[in-house]
Amino acid sequence: MRRRPAVARIERRGAHTNSVNNISAYLDSIQIMETVHIGQSQFSSPVVVFCAEPSCECEIYARQLAHAWSAKGYPTYEIDCTKTPKDELLTHLRHYCSEVECNNLQRPLIVITSLMPCDEALAQRLGRLISRLSECNYNFVLTVAPEASQVLSYVQHPVIIHGSDLVVQRAYLSSFTDFISFSQVESAFAYSFGVPQLLRPALEYFNRHPRHDVPIESLYCLRDAVKKHILDGFRDSLISDDKNMRLAMFLLGVGTLEDIDKAVGKSCGDIFASLCDAAPFYNASSFDKTFCCAYLFNHKVLDGVRHELASYAQLEPKITKRCIELLLEHKEYARAIKVASLFCDEQTWLEVALGWPIELINAGEGRVLRDAVLQCEDNAHVFERACAQVALRVIDGKYETAQQELICVPAPLGSRQTEIYYQLIWLMEALKPAAYSSDALQDKYHQNDEHNEKISAVVPMSPYAEKDVKEARDLPSQSVVDGTYELAHALYVHCCVKQHLMRGDIKKAFAELLIQGVPSKIASVTDVLLAIDFTAVQRFASDHVLRAGFVLQERVTEFAEQTDYAFLADRFNAFCIGLDALAGATDQLSELERLTNKLISAGLQLEAAILLVCAAVQSMYESSRLQAYVLLERAAKLSNEAMPFLSLHLYHLQTALDMCMGSNDTKAASLAKIENPTSSTCVEWLLEKAYLKEESKLIVAANRLKKYALPEVMLPLLAVLAKTCGELSSSLVDAMPAAWCNKIDKFTSDRRDMLKKHESDLLLADAKPHELRINVLGELAMYVDGIPVAEASWKRHMAKNLVALLAVTPGHSLTRLQATSALWPDCDYAQARDRLYVTLTAARRAVSIENGGCPFICTGSGRIWLASEYVTIDMDEFTHACHQVFSAEYSNKQLLEEVMNVSAMYTGMVCVMDDVLGLSLAAREDTGKRFIDLCLLGAYAALSEKELSRAEWLADRAYREDDLREDALRVLLEVYVKQGRVADAKGLFTKYARKLSEVTGLSPSCELKRLLQSIFVRFNAEEGTDDMNHGCGQISESQKEATENSKLIESTSIKTTSKKKSVEELGTDNKVSDSDKTDQRMRKIRRNPGDKGDGEGLPTAQAS
């Protein structure tokens, strides 16, 4: 006879069952923090759902609830959806139902963790099955993600616990004042919003640092938790276009807190305000609440925050796409591609990258474009991919290859593809090498009276593209600058300027820049190199446009063979440093000062002047006028000392750069048509007349300009031009009003005082002792005088590994043979020695101080070492602190406090470098053993003081560091037993035995088995005593389980030679009190820290 399905039989049997207490009645037994419980027993549903939000560690609470249920003797089952396919989920449920029916179990609990999104049919079947079983005295605990909530719509009356529901009430704060003051608890509560995951680390921090009363200090330990809580503020969905627009404005940096409050509610604005108050913690010098959200999205220090926000942005793709559209409208191409790469899928990222190829190159994001071309499929984005490939060939200097590939570019369709094609054509014209130019290398004094001459492109094109491009390439500049194709016009102007420079007509070239006004990075980089030597432009264009951090020595040598300037031929390295500065190393003044002082100390005044002029160009195009003024002043001073700098070409270079300073402010206004100056164009009018030497206008210029005030923004420009440009300076001074000259003189004196103060500050900085701090615990990081060493400073990968290798080596010293053998084991000694020399130079340069020196890395007598008086290493500090704890005599309470403080210094294992794996692993193993011994020493002290929570925390950290250490397992088992968690002790021992057998092939030692057996026997005796006191003659289920566990352990133990001897040993062990055992083990750890001892480390028992 066919049996009915298990679920149907359970439904029929449950229909006649009386109602009993369900799982929601045990919610108040979940302890979210010490002495603080959820306390939500008003619910009466057999289904409890924890919503997996960032501020809710739902799986922990679900397991606590299951533990409270199983402690009452009810059966508990768990299904982990991350390890169970969706199709087998219903099969597992039916299997558990059959087991419950066969064993006649009462009130079973089924825990389903990490429930992921599923199709509607499966969600409906699962929800209805849970509802039917819940009516038959089944209980369920579910942990679901917000996007998987469709299952809950089919469950009848579930209890849903959100992250914001698990909040510590203010009334419970008095229970945390045992170790810290109430004001500190209030501060922690205010900054953590009462969320347990935020409040717990704050209390631990105050407990370790009781003297810090400043509320902002609590944020130093809340970084990771606050990042998670940001998402909780975004829980309300942003659907309306108005909200999307406000959030997008905030990401652009033009929104206000009012916008973000209206978008996602007041609580989110408060969170951002708190993050603004914590600006020093996030290594932000200054930023206000208006740009807080944009700062979080774009600052490189906050990668973790962007990752957390990215997980939310994936839930709201409309917001992200709208943000990208607005960024592209505002010409923020670099930020747009960042948002696309962080928050969007690969398809959207490719659309943004390939849809704006020339703009990304101009914004310094050429590497992103290279990645997009490599990842794009052949049949997708055909036109955009072809144009991007041609543009990359051009900036790499492979012009002939670019010409050949341009012929295969498809015809443009639509306005956007047409614009890309125009940009590509003029990019090729702007960066065309001199050898391909039809009128290259003509007489440099050749004059052309036609200013708006037409420049026809000589780029070979396909027949269908020639007609489309002919109209644009044959138009003069006045017709091209119509606002339609802005970047194409910038490249067109650059092409015109290049043609003038190739003829040697610098006057017309930069008069063109003054008239057109082109703030293009491509123009700023290539024009400077063009004035030095045009043949070198294409060889370095790729590195500079893409802001590379280095220039290869082979390329410098190739440049030297082709250059005509003898004064640069013998100074490759110095010129390479100047190119590095041009590529972006001058973002920090300290880096520029270091490079300049290094050149001057080597007697290279000429190269130092070139470096300062290059940096001044970069500052001009970034509108940093004051910084450009200071740099040009120093360059002029050095040029007087270096006679070769008076050569004609470099004199033209400096004069041209001086005039470039005003190009960004002309805004494409045609100054040639301005006959009468105004208050806004008076300076530009004067510059144009003076540079073009219109004597008739300059004679009356002073009378015409005296009614206008000199604009403050133009003051640095005129100060430079009036002092450093020879004949041009004289013409300007004669044509300016007296009030302008007086104002310039006062400005010049103020700037000189500023330079003197800057030099004195540098001298004071040099007088202070410098420090290099190396952190090797957790993640590798280095700090010079408190400033992190940027990743771009490491020109060679092995340079960073060399410093890290010295940090983890005992004594921090290596011979040359040891260093070369560790870094390049496969090379012969001669080749490795040459590499070591280059790597050592790169390492010293990366960690050098402001004046260019490096007192941290020393060499001599065939050895390399770190200077101990200047270098501090966190691993050494931790080792020294551990030694003090092991050697000092403390009481148990003092010892526990010292262990807690020292354990906070251990932020993680020693970082392992793949290139020097052996030495890194040795340092990691030694430090890990020391940390485990420290935790065990503290755990024994905590057991003596009966502080079980701290003992568990320390023992658990020791066990997690090395889960095969038997002494760590033993301490953790003792803690579990004293806490009454026998089930956890059994599970921990089983997990340990299984892993020990898999890894080493051994079984646990006899001593550990006897210890666990005595635990179950003692637990059995205590349970039996309780049953006798209650007059119960039957053996409880827990007694049966303990007896079975005891038999199981006894059966798996190794047979000894004499059963009597085992009993005597067990009796001898029982005679020693627990306190005496603890004292003996503490003395043993103090005598031999790091020594595992007999039965304390990896067991030496027989093979299983």
UniProtKB/TrEMBL annotation:
Keyword DNA-binding: yes
GO molecular function, one term: DNA binding
Region (Disordered), start-end ranges: 1027-1104
Bacterial transcriptional activator domain segment(s): 873-1016
Superkingdom as given in the UniProt entry: Bacteria
Skewed-composition ranges (Basic and acidic residues): 1071-1095
Entry keyword set: DNA-binding
Pfam families on file: BTAD
SUPFAM superfamilies tied to this protein: TPR-like
Biased composition (Low complexity): 1046-1056
SMART domains tied to this protein: BTAD
InterPro entries in the cross-refs: AfsR-DnrI-RedD_regulator (IPR051677), BTAD (IPR005158), TPR-like_helical_dom_sf (IPR011990), WH-like_DNA-bd_sf (IPR036388)
Protein name per Swiss-Prot or TrEMBL: DNA-binding transcriptional activator of the SARP family
Source species: Atopobium minutum
Lineage, opening ranks: Bacteria, Bacillati, Actinomycetota, Coriobacteriia, Coriobacteriales
